[in-house]
Each structure stands twice: as C-alpha cells, then as structure tokens.
Structure prediction request, 227 residues.
Amino acid sequence: MSIWITRSEPGATALADAIEGAGFKPFKAPVLSIESLPFELPEGRFNVVIFLSAHSARLAAQTVKGRFNRAFAVGRRTRQVLIELGLEATAAETESSEGLLADLPDLAHQSVLLVSGTGGRNVLGPGLEERGAVVKRLEVYRRVPISPCVHCAEIDAAVASSGDGFRQAARVWLAAGGAPELPVLVPSARVGALGAGLGLANVIECAGADSEAVLATLRSMKRECLV
Prediction:
C-alpha cells in the first residue's frame, strides 16, 4: 500500500520512516508548512502551561522552561516532544482540545498560558475562562498551505493529522483528479466529520495522530484487504 503523508515536517519524515519500517510505501508530500513567528513571553510565572501542538512545543518549550508549575500537552506526540526537550508534561487521554479540557484539574483563579499557532479552533481558552482561569495565549507559528504534485494513481490512502491539513489535502487531491473514495486516516472524529463537506467521505478514524495510532490502523486495513 502506498500512503500519502500530508502532515508538515518534521512529523512527515518521522511518520514516513515508521510506515516504511512496517512494510508500507510512504509518499511524503506535506500540504502545510510551518512558519515560526517572533514572540515575546508574557511576564510573570504561570501555574499551568498548555502546548496545543508538537510545533508549539518545539518552538517555545525552551523559552517557557522554568516559568510554570505544571505542563499539559494536547496529545502523545506533543508530550513526547516536550520530554525530548527536557520538560515533563501530562497528555490528554482523548487527543483534542475538548479531551484536554475534560482532563484538566480545577484551574479557577490560576494563571494559564496556551502555546499554539495562529488561527485554529478557539475552544480551550474560553472553556478555561468560564471555569475562572486567567488565560493568556502565546502564538509562535503559522501554517502556510502548499500544493505538492500528487500522482493519484500511485496512492492507495492518505494520512491527515489536522483539520487544516485535511482541508488542504482535499483541495490538492481533487484538483489533481483524484477519486473521492480515497481512504483518509484522521486522528479524531472531529477531523473526520469534515470529510463529507470536503468531498472525501471515506474517512478512517485513528486513535490519535502519532505514528503508533496510524500504523495500527494501516495494519487493520491491510488485514481486511487480505480477508
């Protein structure tokens, strides 16, 4: 099976290596690039810092280090990046803003720093403010859409790791004449729900965005094809 990896770097290369090691054929063609932004850390110390993506962890972890009491990550991949950078963090059991919001302790009257990219879904901040937390947001990068050359006949399935990535991948695929029946692996039901509106309704939900979740789903698909 040839798998189109649409996620941005460096996650694209890491997933491609894992997929190839498991016996699948990766086609690495990201549809988003990450552009870092200049940022200035707000003054003071925070009770909690929350990293909303692996990119935010890579770009801001060292700057934030030593300025908080406890750290949380939106998912396992983000937590792993933080650990590699020397920061311990708790990951959400369900990898989404809603899942993290459900897992967080009572943060009423506590200072919270959200580290993220520009745009995206504004779920966590308002949810925490409703609970009485004092929330500040630090935006450290932006996503830039790109349109790689895609040979549709050579691709059996695609992996989209975010809503923005799924939207851009759908544009690229359909513009290249790709069939709407393309299986697309997504990290959550929320991202998968975009499929019908994008013209790609053959969506397969993984249990997260990390390589292990993607590989488990690919192996399951392969077994079904052999039955």
Observations:
- The chain has two domains: 2-31+148-226, 35-143.
